[in-house]
Amino acid sequence: MIDFHSHTNRSYCADKDLSLDFYEQKLSESSDFDGVCITDHGMAIYFPDSVAWSWEYIKDSRIFDNHRDFGNERLEKHLKNVALLNSKSIYCGLEVEMSQDGKLIYDSYFRRKLHPLIGSVHYLFVSNEYGYLEKDIAGFWLEHNKKLMESGIDILGHPLRWISSHAKIDDSMIEQILNIAQQNSVAIEINSHNITKTLYEADKKMIIMAAERGLKISLAVDAHKKVQVGNFDFHNRLFKECGISLKDLNLLNLKDIGL
Ligand SMILES: [Zn+2]
Ligand SMILES: [Zn+2]
Questions:
Q1: What is the average pLDDT across 169-175?
Q2: N or C: which end of the chain has fewer CB within 10 A?
Q3: Rounded to the nearest whole angstrom, what is the distance from the C-alpha of residue 147 to the centroid of ligand 1?
Q4: Cα 150 vs. chain centroid, distance in angstroms?
Q5: In the predicted model, what is the mean pLDDT of residues 205-230?
Q6: What is the Å distance from ligand 1's center to 156 Cα?
Q7: In Å, what is the CA distance from 219 to each residue of 45, 85, 154?
Q8: How confident is the model at residue 253 (pLDDT cuts 50, 70, 90)?
Q9: What span, in angstroms and rounded, lies between the C-alpha atoms of 141 and 146?
């Protein structure tokens, strides 16, 4: 199995000992772990940690403009480091957010070098913390996801994670996300990081609906710790509980992301 989304210590939220070397070692000793796309956070490459964690760049993309050169230099180096391991089935992608004014937070100059480009929602200023009502949050989130999937990303990262802790998820929300993914040839991700009971139930509905439509499915461990690397137990359990077998799924492959 290929993990299309995992982190190294290049991301501020991952453990310090989660190195590229560790991935190399793990791939060489595991029989069902066939490859990994290292998709560190764009925000950890483009911003120093204090700027990254303030999330201000989500509402003001000029903060990205001011850090573009700083980040580009770091991304160039990072790509070169990971490229040394391509022969070991380790590839380099990126996980990025979109600002609320509709800009992906990375330099599109790098687009064709990234395998894959994942678009994810980690923070929005239209949320309960800022006094918005659930229906307005859900509406804004949906619009935001639409722009995100129309922006040229390969994969929608953990599609329901953010909304699962900010509004009630109904079937029509999942349906709309899947429709937009289908229209834009974006793969839907099954992600095993930070799963709550609510999110697990929503993910089950999502995978059943996505499988019925034959949507591209991307498997993501989203490892932030050594112990998580190459571990697909969550995915296997989820598919089993949904009565889905791996061979019934239209799984994303390396060719789909330009490799
Ligand atoms: Zn993420
Ligand atoms: Zn991630």
A1: 97
A2: C
A3: 17
A4: 15
A5: 98
A6: 10
A7: 23, 21, 13
A8: very high
A9: 9
Q: What is the CA angle 202-206-208, rounded to 5?
A: 120
CATH topology of domain 2-257: TIM Barrel (3.20.20)
36-58, pLDDT tens digit by residue? 999 999 999 999 999 999 999 99
Residues contacting 186, CB < 8 A, separation 6+: 119, 149, 153, 154, 155, 156, 180, 216
Confidence band of 14 (pLDDT split at 50, 70, 90): very high
Ligand 1 ion local residues (Cβ < 5 A) = 120, 157
SS3 call for 183: helix
Q: Tokens for 231?
A: 């571990």
The mean pLDDT of the chain is 97
- Percentage, residues of the chain above pLDDT 70: 100
The residue with tokens 């003001």 is 60
For residue 139, the CA-to-ligand 1 centroid distance in Å is 21
0.85 cut: is pTM over it? yes
Residue in the block written with tokens 């180096």: 77
In which residue are the tokens 């990375």 written? 106
Query: 3-state SS of the chain: helix, strand, coil percent to 5?
Result: 50, 15, 35
Within 8 A by CB and 6+ apart from 74, the residues are 45, 46
> 72 to each of 65, 115, 163, how far by Cα in Å?
11, 17, 31
